[in-house]
Amino acid sequence: MLQFLSNYPWRYYLKTFLGKGRTARGVLLVKEDRVSMLSQVRGKLVFSSGLRELKGAPSLTNSSRAGRGTDFRRKALADRSVNYSFEWIFVVDTPDMQIHQVDSLRSGSARELTSRRVMELVPSVLKADLADWELVNSRLEPIEQDTTPVSILLGLPKSVIKDLEGWSRPLRSIVSAILPLTLVLLEQSIALSPTGFHVVLTTNHTVIALTQEGEIRLITRVDPIKRLGATQIDAIIGSFGDTFPEVAQHPARFISSDLSSAELENEAKDFSIPVVSTSPSEFLNLEEIIQGHRAAPIEAFALYRALCLVPPNPYH
User: Fold this and answer.
1) Which of 13, 53, 167, 301 has a Cα-to-Cα distance from 249 of 20 to 30 A?
2) What's the predicted TM-score (pTM) here?
């Protein structure tokens, strides 16, 4: 995962100037219904939620700007050293994010992922020309580094990239990476259960994966659970288990930054296999690492993981 993020397709957004001193970094979760942030304040990682309503907050649906005098710049960014040497990592949950499993024998590694090439790999793909694409292997690493039997094709809307770049421009800061929330949560889930089933739930997506010893063998993206229903998710997990019967006895791990452990257990109460609902207690000692994490512990830890996994921009 570290190698994948350090070569992230939605790029190191480079500037040509040189910053002086130590580079400060921060992570912003941007969803349709909320915005939260993790960065250092006076040497301590501080998590802040409920930022969406502040004027100037980043948005996935309009070209927001954090201009001088906006509430977001005056309140949310106070004491966070956001200037020309600051690096942003965005974690996003956008409806148009796409995940497709492809056969590595078909995908190869050397060809450019043009929209035409993407449609050759996945004929059912939607709006191929409106997204930036990247292939990763079953360990979520660049396909060039190690080709595995399973490849994963990821697509992120170009409009999202443009809007987030535009948002950071008035701050004169750098966008180091833009990561799908589903992938960050999936990485957390696999770290906790290297072999088994994984169900990642966000507002816009349900991602279901089967892994063996930390490698993805099967993965699919379907509608959110509120729209799709738990019965359909259970059926998909059952079909995955039929393909890999040696994994079928393992429980399904549910993870979400939107639903509490109790809500996850309620959604999965009628599943045909045992279910593990990811709890904040399974992570590192959040109280020692992140100030303010109690407002949304799994969300705060997801931003912390993104901060750890994306190395500082080597060109800055």
Assistant:
1) 301
2) 0.88
